[in-house]
Every structure is written in structure tokens, then in C-alpha cells.
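User: Sequence recovery, please. Input:
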């Protein structure tokens, strides 16, 4: 039987397949063999069927490190620079309990792929009564997603890019679509049709997110076509919050998405019969980016960042 330590010792958890021994070195994601968390707090800015509309929100745990590290990432301090505190599995389980104790509608695990073994162990210690949401960039291995079966009730993956050229340029992952599409099909296999509670909260199921990028709507159209044909019935959350970052070197990504671009994408989604969520123009505002300050991470200790990974 494979133990948690074994999975970190020659890490192939994500499609990067670094084979790194994370007990003493770092792979592409920059993550150690214990969970690193940057923030654990009530979060209101997810889809209404995840966070509700009554102010209770979702209990969001933001993990540090990332298997993608997109060139324009709004959360670069945690995804690129690894800001966060290293905690034990026991503390992670406590955090799940503390967040649920705040009356949230769901537990929202954000970018946890690099810590799957620890997260599963923590969910074995504390089993939430609210749905556990797997909120990821979509760059997963289907076999790693299979490990989550039974522990996760709701999948909230991104499906970012269709073209290998585009994904290679933005996140150095030419195999993004091939891997993500396999992983998303596995997620759907696990959850089946979406099931909602009387309060409108998604109890079991899946929503696919897609961030519309400036000048890349033809890529978006291929993504929408894939969802319509391979993931029928899955709602799509079309995000227009792309915000140019000064450190992003890619030409063309230095502006926001125009009204016309976003309208075009919504029209295509309608023509394909896709249901789901859209965003207002105001969502492209840095105010919606969470503050990464170790809120809720450490137990009875002053807030202080751990060493950068
Ligand atoms: S989780 Fe990290 S170390 Fe493991 S394969 Fe992926 S990028 Fe490499």
C-alpha cells in the first residue's frame, strides 16, 4: 500500500511528473512534503451555488505553490513565490473544522493538487458535513483525481486553454488541454448529474470555469465546443476578470477583455446550449483578489510568513 510519504518521495501527482523527492527538494510547483497554506477564511466571491447569496460564504483554503504558474497569475505571491506557512495534517484538519464552524455553505479547497495526499489525510481526520469543493486550475492527472473520489463532492476546475501553443506560451504546458480534458471527464464520472439542495447550494456535481483572455476568443470557442459535446449538462462559469499584470511579458495580454469580446463568447455559449454563470465588468477589479496574510492558518500564533519555497 502506498503511504502519503511515498507519494511525495518521487512526486508524479500532476502532469509535470517531476519525480522530485519532496522531503528534500522541490519540483516545478515549489512545494514541500507538508501543506503550505496562505489563507483560510470565509470567502464570498465564488458562484452563488458554492458560496450562497446570504453572506455565509464558503470556507476557502488557499494552498501555496502551483502546478501551472500562469504568466499573468493574479495570485502570483502564492503561486509563483510560494508565500504561506507550512502546517501539519492535523492542523489542516482543524482548519476544516474551524471554517465549517463559521456556518459556511461549503469547504473550498483552492489549488490543492500538489498536496492531494495531505488533504486526503486531513479529510480522513475531519469529515465535513458541507460539500467539499475541489477548486483547481484543471491541470491534473486523471489518476490523481481518482484518489479524490468519495472525499470531494463538487469539482470546480478551470478549463483554460485549447491550443497547445497558447498553453505552452502562458504556462509552459503544451499538454494542458489533453491532460485537463481527461481529468474533467474523470471528475464528471465521479459526480454524475449536478444535485442541488433546497437552498440552491450544489451538493454534488461540477462547474467548469473559463477565464476569457484578450485576443483569444477563438480558443474559448473550442473550449465551449468541448464542454458542450463531452460534458453535457455541466454549467460553465465564464469569467471576465482578467487583469493585466506588470510582470507578464506576453504581448497582447496587456489589456482587459473588451465588452465585444465577452459578448461574443456569451453568444457562442448560448448557441451551444450551455448554461451557467457570467460576470459583470466590475469583476475585473483587484479588490476581488483575496489578501494573502495567513488569516486562519496558524493556531494561536502571531501571523508570520514561513520561508519562501
Ligand atoms: S505536484 Fe509538484 S513536484 Fe509533484 S509532479 Fe507536480 S509540479 Fe512536480
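Assistant: Recovered sequence (309 residues):
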Amino acid at each position: 500500500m502506498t503511504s502519503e510519504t511515498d507519494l511525495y518521495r518521487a512526486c508524479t501527482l500532476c502532469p509535470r511528473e517531476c519525480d522530485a523527492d519532496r522531503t528534500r527538494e522541490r519540483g516545478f510547483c515549489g512545494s514541500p512534503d507538508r501543506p503550505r497554506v496562505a489563507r483560510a477564511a470565509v470567502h464570498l466571491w465564488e458562484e452563488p451555488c458554492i458560496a450562497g447569496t446570504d453572506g455565509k460564504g464558503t470556507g476557502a483554503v488557499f494552498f501555496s505553490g502551483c502546478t501551472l504558474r500562469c504568466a499573468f497569475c493574479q495570485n502570483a505571491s502564492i503561486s509563483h513565490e510560494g508565500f504561506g506557512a507550512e502546517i501539519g495534517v492535523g492542523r489542516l484538519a482543524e482548519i476544516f473544522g474551524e471554517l465549517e464552524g463559521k456556518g459556511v455553505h461549503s469547504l473550498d479547497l483552492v489549488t490543492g493538487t500538489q498536496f492531494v495526499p495531505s488533504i486526503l489525510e486531513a479529510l480522513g481526520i475531519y469529515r465535513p458535513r458541507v460539500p467539499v469543493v475541489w477548486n483547481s486550475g484543471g491541470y491534473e492527472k486523471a489518476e490523481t483525481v481518482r484518489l479524490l473520489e468519495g472525499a470531494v463532492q463538487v469539482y470546480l476546475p478551470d478549463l483554460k486553454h485549447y491550443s497547445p501553443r497558447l498553453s505552452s506560451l502562458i504556462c509552459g504546458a503544451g499538454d494542458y488541454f489533453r491532460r485537463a480534458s481527461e481529468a474533467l471527464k474523470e471528475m464528471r464520472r465521479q459526480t454524475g448529474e449536478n444535485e442541488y439542495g433546497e437552498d440552491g447550494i450544489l451538493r454534488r456535481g461540477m462547474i467548469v470555469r473559463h477565464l476569457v483572455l484578450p485576443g483569444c476568443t477563438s480558443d474559448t470557442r473550442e473550449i465551449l465546443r468541448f464542454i458542450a459535446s463531452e460534458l453535457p449538462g455541466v454549467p460553465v462559469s465564464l469569467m471576465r476578470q482578467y487583469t493585466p499584470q506588470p510582470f507578464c511579458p506576453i504581448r497582447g495580454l496587456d489589456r482587459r477583455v473588451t465588452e465585444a469580446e465577452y459578448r461574443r463568447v456569451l453568444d457562442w455559449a448560448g448557441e451551444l446550449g450551455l448554461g451557467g454563470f457570467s460576470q459583470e465588468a466590475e469583476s475585473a477589479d483587484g479588490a476581488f483578489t483575496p489578501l494573502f496574510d495567513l488569516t486562519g492558518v496558524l493556531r494561536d500564533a502571531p501571523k508570520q510568513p514561513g520561508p519562501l519555497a
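The CA atoms of residues 150 and 190 lie 8 Å apart.
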